[in-house]
């Protein structure tokens, strides 16, 4: 009889209209029919990425697109700034090292956001920096970075800004072209309400001009090939056809709701989540909380990993614990894609129950639900 | 009212029992529940790969796994033999060049199969060859290669045999361990009756020992990471969860039918296809036809690309034309995965119709169906 409530920061809930497409019959990808689907999807991606530049589709998880950004836009020993304040900033550094780039690390405490001015200073001191790698929403800490601020220091420079927006896109505001972000990366299993398996990568004119000089090896993730196919429209290798068919459906839903409305909605949902958590005595981990995922500090005597396990196994509510050194310290509640008010209400109701079962009682019963209603229905 | 009949060499038909799973609700991948699915899937893959070694799952098309084989088992300037007798042999060469390997090309005429003895001679002349790259079923020509014969020349040598079995696995017999094949690669959208998006790669003990020495850059396709996760079981990056859930269902179907039975079935289906084609005056392109896909030479005055378009658009029967220089010359009929007698009967009935419409009349009406029945129901 158990139902499942998915509030993890990827995968996220898939609406039944999209699941219906995913479970439909497959079609061949080298056909006019699929070409039309690609055309529609390409337009939809530009909309949600806020760009007039191409957004290529790769069949991989988001990490594949991150690797593509490193191996296509740069060359061995190129100097890059890598902002790292969580697991996914670290991933930029790991990929950069794997390809022999010269990394200028800008490490910040987990839960904090980088200072755009500091990056500006680094760029002044290092005139030959080819790229800045950073993150829109650092999923591991629930922190949104000031991408507009960072981008302002790269204008008119021969440096490209590459942003991992895998978990942030669709919830956290990101004006790719208006702010001057060269490469934005996302994945299918978060704001796009799809299963994992697709990654997206936007390419500015400036970034495209970097492709010609790169000397790093690549094949499956070769963006020159991907862009060449993009304009047909086609893909260089067999794509995840059913996911792309689902993507068309998802983009229809997104366009109908409107990107600005979505940013407002998730700002409200995340505010409600923070206020609800505080109303039962829990602290917010991030100093610059994102609209996509909220990291809550677990009560001192409760290991968040155990709480997460209990909520999932006993009550079907899936939240995420922490990663790396935060494994037992924080609890992450995602509000992305198809997550709405209803899921947050269920989440906090079960969270109150689980906390009490594990011996944490420092709140009034129903306090978080009252707070949710106050913020959400105001 | 039109229904579609998919006889292309990937994607192939997806049975409704599998589609139901693909359209089901998504679950989180870092859970006990998904761990159990992975465990089951890992066992099933060993069965269909005929190996006791691990078969890792990558979220990509088959080409991603081909790249993984190059970038993980080899180092720059390593000497490798690449067998190329079609588009997918060429792909091995392209990837090898992209990573700076020293390629000894063994180019054969499209439609012919390589000589194991010739490879044996190449190995004698080049003692320092690290790997031989070849193909089980060369999809572009419908040719099956003598992998057992090739493998016999690599025994007791410090050279690994890497086989692209993307379209062949499940139809063309391949005894990975018994023949001594080190790395076998496949993909989800052929014999596995799934949408594209997953690739599989088996790793022998000998191949695993090569991982430590490789100096080529990799991250998303890092097989050391993949193997480390494999034993938990887990995946290093977010996998295509819904496809893996579908894979569990597909492997159940495959196990129930039995791999030996499947090899027999597809040997019979491919024989029937060849005989049916010949009965209406068409020639078979390959000199060593595979059980997975049959390449038929188009009648002289008919461009196969136009015939394919007509059959698909007018009658919903999807076949494939040729690739590269064979674009207008051959017609490819796939018998893989869930394709059965019924689909072949529809295929040839519509093929007869289409051929007549395009001016080819050199056969008796129904001749190919008569032949199909003779072979299939004998």
What is the strand and helix layout of this fold?
The structure is a homodimer of 378-residue chains.
Chain A: E1 5-6, H1 16-22, H2 32-49, E2 55-59, H3 62-73, E3 79-84, H4 87-98, E4 102-107, H5 116-125, E5 129-135, E6 137-138, E7 143-144, H6 147-152, E8 160-164, H7 176-179, E9 183-187, E10 198-202, H8 205-211, H9 223-230, H10 241-257, H11 259-279, E11 293-297, H12 304-315, E12 317-318, E13 330-334, H13 341-357, H14 367-376
Parallel strand pairs in A: 1-12, 3-4, 3-5, 5-8, 8-9
Antiparallel strand pairs in A: 2-10, 6-7, 9-10, 11-13
Folded structure, characterized:
- In chain A, 43% of the residues lie in helices and 15% in strands.
- The first copy, chain A, starts with a strand and ends with a helix.
- The longest helix of chain A is centred in the C-terminal third of the chain and has 21 residues, at 259-279.
- Chain A is an alpha/beta fold and 378 residues long.
- The model of chain A has no long low-confidence stretch (mean pLDDT 97).
- In chain A, the strands form four sheets. Chain A has a seven-stranded mixed β-sheet, with helices on both faces. Chain A has a two-stranded parallel sheet with strand order 1-12. A two-stranded antiparallel ribbon of chain A has the order 6-7.
- At the A-B interface, helix 1, helix 3, helix 4 and helix 10 of A face helix 1, helix 3, helix 4 and helix 10 of B.
